[in-house]
Write the structure tokens for this entry.
Amino acid sequence: MAYIFDEVWVNNGQLVVGDKNINPPDALGKGAGRVRHSAYIEGPLQVGNSGDFSVAEGTVMIGKDGNTNAPVSLHVKGDGTNAVYIDGDLYVSGSTDTGNKGRLASRFATSDGLPPKAFDIQHPTKGEGWRLRYVSMEGPEAGVYCRGRVKNEKVIRLPAYWKDLVHTDSISVQLQPIGAHQDIIIKRWDDEFIYLQAQGGLPINCFYHVYAERKDVNPVLVEYQGNSRYDYPDPNFSEDSSIPLEGRNFKDPNYKFPRNTYTI
């Protein structure tokens, strides 16, 4: 039995909203083969509070429920495997709480086995067909460095924030004279300056590298018992920790491991 009201019609349990001459989509079947209790709407569909959208922002718009105060706008119950399938990009403006599978799990597993913090770009000189890959320095400490050149001065000025960032007694310095041997020595250092001296008071001209261990986080425990990185004994640094990121204490005194570098 069929019922037709303007451009809304029902035929054997199938609902169609659209021009009266429109045919239901092939996916819902036709005639005796139609999918019973199915529905087709030609234009956008909005569900929820009427004022949640001011314009048609999508083919389907789901807002908050104004009647039963349902806690979520969309709840999908599938069979547990690929319950939601999206053919195209997904944009999420809020946070997500998900596991991973398929290609994503494969990418995670691959990246876990590679050196960390790599970047891989098209080669800036050789161009297309060539790649340039850099990997961050690794070592047995939470280390930082600064580098540069000293010319006609006797001090290396450390970054102003280093006094709060690094252990002064972990600082080490490398110098490379430019142009000629100058017998440069390091007289002393503090949390602001590295003081230099050259033979016979000659002008200093050199490159420098300064390294230090951070003090704003607990020292790295280089060797520990475990079968995977998730066994690291400080849960504040674990990727699968139950501690939310905003609640983590990277200087937790319960996990203050021994320092890794002393230079005094």
Observations:
- The first strand starts at residue 2 and ends at 5.
- Residues 2-62 form one domain.
